[in-house]
């Protein structure tokens, strides 16, 4: 910043301070005579009193969340505590209606704030039970304008009713219902959110569907009840913090496998169109066993339930690590074993790397995909013998000209967050770190990372700092070579 810009900023800051002081004085006087609540603040053009008693002018919340790759994702000015979603979907008419209550805490005095919300139309909107107005671009940004500004530090509720025909990429129509999933974004197609992993929240989800269909979502099942209208409501509760893209719903006809295995609860669903007892069902039913193995590598399983869903959706090219209940397309299981449980190991590894510890920036996707792919190597070593070292050596032999080396997994670019290099070179990077710091420190590092970061987010820089602390080694060269160059790194230790 130039010296003259510096001076201008100083002048502006002083001017704001004068206004704030003046508003504070007026607000102070009005506080004595004025009505309780925020009524006086509106009259003053949006000043409100913060928890410290300082008067700060209410300002719009940031319509973006500060992501370096996806600046439109997420919003500023508040922090969601929980989502209570009541959804109703009719496969016959393809209409989705929702009643969402979002409970959030204002992190600044807010004159207005944004949700990420797509194309469904809003029929009612209230903030703290008072009618609010809104501006909606019908793509991703919904601006909520409360009747009175929100005081910094206060918890508030937003109630929103909406309806429409979902048309986005995350909303998949199936023969019997719908499957809603997607990364890095999917929430905007079915509920209003602060759509960035750094604002995680608890979820209570109710899905009402015609009787005869099952609706599956994240977390612990709360059973179902049949309403007088012949529709059935399924309840789901995800009390551990969850990133918005990890919420899902699967509506259809499923075979359900439920129980407890070695102390870990599970709920697994397989689309009825898939053969009973077939490879997909066999593989996904091994989820508790795979989770138990991964717990020996990464530390305790981070949630109170596990499971998975095999859907009949030919167009789905990926599985996704939805929290507590990944979704798998049947195509992943056609090869039989070991590929079948390998994908289960991948998605369940994400429960630690991605779900419990989420990316603080989408740029740092290596923390998800590198480790989930590495977990496949660990599982395959345990399940059928090929060692992680052999996998590394085999993959490392890939010529420098091959696609797997580029882009750099630590900063692949917004268009390439799911490039093969993020997965394959990403897994090699994890193993290169293991070779450099040794097995004992490596597994201690994984366990310490997942326990200290549990329920929050992490960055590669923080992971590197922890690795350096625990190993006592300076690892900058290794991280640079493996994560940030476009070239094939030297073999570790050479
Ligand atoms: Zn993955």
- CATH C-level name of the domain at 57-252: Mainly Beta
| Distinct compounds present | zinc ion
Spatial strand order of the main sheet? 8-7-11-5-4-14-17-16
Which percent bin holds the helix content? 25-40%
Which superfamily, in CATH terms, is the homologous superfamily of the domain at 57-252?
Answer: tricorn interacting facor f3 domain
Explain how this protein is built.
- This protein is an alpha+beta fold and 494 residues long.
- Among the domains are: 57-252, Immunoglobulin-like (Sandwich), CATH 2.60.40.1730; 358-484, Neutral Protease, domain 2, CATH 1.10.390.
- The protein contains eleven helices and 24 strands.
- It has helices at 3-33, 39-43, 279-285, 287-298, 339-352, 366-384, 388-396, 420-437, 439-452, 460-471, 476-484; strands at residues 47-49, 55-57, 59-60, 78-90, 95-106, 110-116, 121-127, 130-131, 133-136, 141-145, 155-164, 171-173, 178-180, 201-210, 214-216, 220-226, 231-242, 249-252, 254-261, 264-271, 305-310, 327-328, 357-359, 456-458.
- Strands 8-7-11-5-4-14-17-16 form an eight-stranded mixed β-sheet, with no helix packed on it. Strands 3-6-10-9 form a four-stranded mixed β-sheet, with no helix packed on it.
- Strand 12 and strand 13 (178-180) form a beta hairpin.
- The protein is globular, with a radius of gyration of 25 Å.
- It binds zinc ion.
- Zinc ion (ZN) binds next to helix 5 and helix 6.
């Amino acid at each position: 910043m130039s010296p003259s810009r510096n001076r201008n900023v100083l002048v502006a800051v002083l001017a704001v301070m004068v206004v704030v002081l003046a508003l504070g004085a007026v607000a102070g006087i009005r506080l004595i005579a004025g009505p309780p609540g925020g009524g006086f603040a509106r009259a003053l053009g949006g000043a409100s009193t913060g928890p410290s008693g300082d008067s700060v002018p209410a300002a719009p919340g940031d319509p973006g969340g500060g992501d370096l790759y996806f600046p439109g994702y997420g919003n500023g000015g508040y922090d969601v505590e929980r989502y209570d979603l009541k959804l109703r979907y009719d496969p016959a008419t393809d209409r989705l209606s929702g009643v969402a209550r979002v409970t959030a805490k204002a992190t600044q005095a807010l004159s207005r704030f944004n949700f990420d919300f797509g194309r469904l139309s809003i029929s009612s909107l209230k903030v703290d039970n008072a009618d609010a107005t809104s501006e909606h671009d019908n793509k991703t940004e919904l601006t909520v304008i409360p009747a009175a500004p929100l005081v910094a530090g206060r918890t508030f509720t937003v109630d929103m009713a909406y309806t429409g025909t979902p048309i986005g990429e995350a909303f998949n129509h199936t023969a019997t219902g719908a499957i809603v999933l997607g990364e890095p974004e999917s929430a905007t197609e079915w509920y209003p959110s602060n759509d960035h992993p750094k604002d995680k929240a608890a979820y209570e989800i109710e899905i009402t569907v015609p009787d005869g269909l099952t609706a599956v979502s994240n977390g612990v099942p709360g059973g179902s009840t049949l309403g007088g209208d012949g529709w059935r409501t399924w309840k789901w509760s995800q009390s551990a913090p969850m990133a918005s893209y990890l919420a899902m719903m699967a509506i259809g006809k499923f075979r359900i496998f439920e129980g407890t295995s070695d102390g870990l609860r599970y709920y697994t669903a397989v689309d009825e169109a898939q053969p009973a007892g077939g490879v997909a069902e066999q593989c996904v039913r091994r989820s508790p066993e795979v989770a138990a193995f991964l717990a020996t590598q990464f530390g305790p399983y981070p949630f109170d339930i596990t499971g998975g869903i095999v859907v009949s959706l030919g167009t789905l090219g990926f599985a996704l690590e939805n929290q507590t209940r990944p979704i798998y397309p049947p195509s992943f299981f056609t090869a039989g074993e070991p590929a079948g449980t390998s994908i289960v190991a991948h998605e369940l590894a994400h429960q630690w790397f991605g779900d419990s510890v989420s990316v603080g920036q989408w740029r740092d996707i290596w923390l998800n995909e590198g480790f989930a792919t590495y977990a496949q190597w660990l599982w395959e070593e345990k399940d059928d013998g090929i060692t992680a070292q052999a996998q590394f050596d085999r993959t490392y032999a890939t010529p420098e000209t091959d696609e797997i080396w580029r882009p750099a997994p630590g900063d692949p670019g917004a268009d390439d967050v799911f490039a093969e290099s993020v997965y394959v070179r990403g897994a090699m990077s994890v193993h290169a770190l293991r070779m450099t710091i040794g097995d004992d420190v490596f597994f201690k590092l994984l366990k310490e990372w997942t326990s200290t970061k549990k329920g929050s987010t992490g960055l590669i820089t923080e992971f590197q700092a922890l690795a350096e602390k625990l190993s006592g080694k300076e690892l900058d060269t290794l991280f640079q070579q493996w994560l940030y160059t476009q070239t094939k790194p030297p073999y570790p230790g050479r």
